[in-house]
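Dear colleague,

Following up on yesterday's call, I've attached the two folding results inline so they're easy to grep. Please treat them as preliminary; we haven't cross-checked anything against experimental data yet. The first protein's sequence and structure tokens come first.
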Amino acid sequence: MTARPLAASLTAALLLACGSDSNPKPADPCAGVTAPCTAFPAGTTEDRIQGAVALAPDGATFVFGAGTFRFANALEVTANGVTIRGAGRDATVLDFAGQVGAEGVGASGDAFTLSDLSIRDTAGNGVKVVGAAGVTIRNVGVSWTRPDLSTHGGYGIYPVQSTDVLVEGCFTSGATDTGIYVGQSQNIVVRDNEATGNVAGVEIENSWDADVHGNHLHGNTAGVLVFDLPGLPQQGGHSVRVFDNRILDNDHPNFAPAGGIVAIVPAGSGVVVMANHDVEVFGNTIQGNQTAAVGVISYLLTGQAPPDGYDPFPRRVHVHGNTISGNGTAPDAATPLGAALGQVRTALGADLPDVMWDGIPDPTGSGANPQEICVAAGASWLSLGAASDPWTPDPDDTAFRCALDPLPAVVLP
């Protein structure tokens, strides 16, 4: 028999003397949190979670453990400074498949943070934040798994009427309107997210001072929409930068409910700017979007009359420095706009150009480029001539080969 080494014997004796524990207690999820903190380990009931969140004081933190938590009702946050986080986007799932209601998570308090979890199969929107000063949504997933697309919610991540909004590192899929939508808000950064299988990947609507960058937007109906619409409390969207994104193969058939503005968007749209001012589109890779790479249009192209006091025209849109290829190959004939673009493609006898303007000029302007739509050399161009019926496309780009001053970066506090 071989003698046991002295070092091994001493080590074993010391472990026994110290009472070694092969099953150490799990770390406290609230460790290091100085604010009031409540942990929800796997198996915590909805009633306990709802009760704790409903009575939350300002500055409270709620930490979900790994696991799936099932909800029949929306989880509503009204206090200020609340943080809700999970154990990771793939580890913590808030499952709303049995929900009776609308949002999955709703918030109306200032300085709201949601991070490191996923929200699944809500009856309505995934996350909706209204009227908050300070919104951070980080590493959050929102998706729908039901095969009937008409049963999905409208918006995945949905901050509105808010300021200082950050959406980063998130994933959205299956929204019948938009995966990541920021509306009627100011000072916005949407970065490093992935959106796929939505009608629109990202939309900035009736907002200003927004940076959309570093996102991977693929397999949606449209990659990025920068819209300004009438009938909303905040109008006059402006100062939006869309840059350094990968906007690829957004050719999913449009499954938005009929009647909404996004329902008119043709499948195969890369970037669409409608009735917005001071928009800069640069440094993006835009590829494989079968209807169009970049469209700059007025609200008039929807066929609806603009109400008094609303400016329906895009202005000061600068498209430059993008890598654009393989777009405009097969416009979406299932939508009226896509069908019209298909006719243009047939008349051209070639794929549609990289950047297209609807060609509806502001009647109060003057000159060949009254709205200052500027496209750098390297991207092909077409005015659709949609001011007349039938359309009279015009490839003359002389007035549109121009440049505008760069927009300032958005700085969050």
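Below is the second protein, in the same order (sequence, then structure):
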Amino acid sequence: MPSAESTQASVHEPAPGPVRPTREDEVAAAGSELIGGPAGRRALLGTSWWTPVRVVALVAIGMFALGLVQKAPCYHSAWFFGASSQYTKACYSDIPHLYQGRGFADGLVPYFDKLTGDMPYLEYPVLTGVFMEVASWLTPHSGTIQHQEQWYWMVNAGMLMVCAAVIAVCVVRTHARRPWDGLLVALAPAFALTATINWDLLAVALTAAAMLMWSRRRSLAFGVLLGLATAAKLYPVLLLGPLLVLCWRAGRWRDFGKALAGAVVAWLVVNVPVMAFASDGWWQFYRFSHDRGVDFGSFWLIWAQNSSSPPSIDFVNTVATLLVVLCFLGIAALALFAPRRPRFAQLAFLVVAAFILTNKVYSPQYVLWLVPLAVLARPKWRDFLIWQACEVAYFLGIWMYLAYTTSGDAHKGLPTHGYQWAIAVHLAGTVYLCAIVVRDILMPERDVVRQGGDDDPSGGVLDGAPDAFVLGTSGHSRLHAAHFGGPPVEWGSRIPAPPDDRSL
């Protein structure tokens, strides 16, 4: 009887060599004509200085710089003179406005010092508040307030550019045989347009680094980085749900326990000091998230704007929570019933997308949450660019709508119904990509990652592991039975471990 190691190698052994998108993706091949055509067989051997990591990192920095240029009209005048011009030029950013609005110009300490105005404390998670405060320390507190705000935005842009490079490099290294998929992140137009609207790139970078650590089978490091990401933005904690279901199906409880412990401890280390000594300020993020009404970008706004009796905040909070929980349960069922265990990145993308689709607000920079997950889940240029086109349309739509609402009788921009169509386009693009990912899960032979011979390159200990528990007779359980003996396992049953489970 063959050993577990040799059997797993025969079942999941990937095809040799890195994947060349210009050879396997028709859209990538067509686009490559701009730079000389598809890569030759020696292009990816790594013998020159131009390795995939360096190329992708430089492209990401270049695109980030183009995003800064796109904000130039606001940098020079629109942030300071006239509300509508920063919208008509689509260069709005929260960063310069919150420099003074959240007390950084006055040297106030986030969470500890109370603010004047409608917002009593900084309404961001603690690690993001630390990021904002560090940028304030690096900002010259001299000259006019406009000069200081320009400096504050530029300092934050430099720090966020590092985050953007980290994200691109992590995606390159997560799928070792598909390093050039990182170009999807680096070249994503919505990524460049929204990178400096807010501070979301910090959480995205930590999440991308966590995904890389999981792919390297470093469960504890994954948990620590995910806990830090959750201390910067709430959405990264959602990744623990898919990981729980996949580890359940694979019987990898110890690794999940390490990841969970690392996440909890890291989150507590960041949050407990502020919770203990500035509890009112610490709660502000959660109070604000609960109490805010229906806002931009959500299907709830379309409902509210077309109803004579808009839904109340309590109703929206309750129903939105119910909807996202139902989506999560559906994703869990998909993971347990699928003919082959889904890849971690696929489920991670689906849960974050479900949260975005059902939430009561969708700020344009939230697309940053999905970009690296989308690349890892569905590295297909056509589908990715269709989704990005929808997000760019929404990016332009929200600014044109705000221009319309702030330009008075001039009515410059996009009226309400036009903005509702922009929201619908964003929702449709996200649903489209979700549907493609679900199809790949139900039909693994359509998954471009698995077509190349890989199983789950971002899955770490899940990569190539046999199932330990399934709902239904899955193809993977039949594969297990064929190589380890015994009949396929039926609905809700446990699959016997292979002879040497430690070797897997």
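For the second protein, one point worth flagging: The two ends are 16 Å apart (CA to CA).

Best wishes,
A.L.
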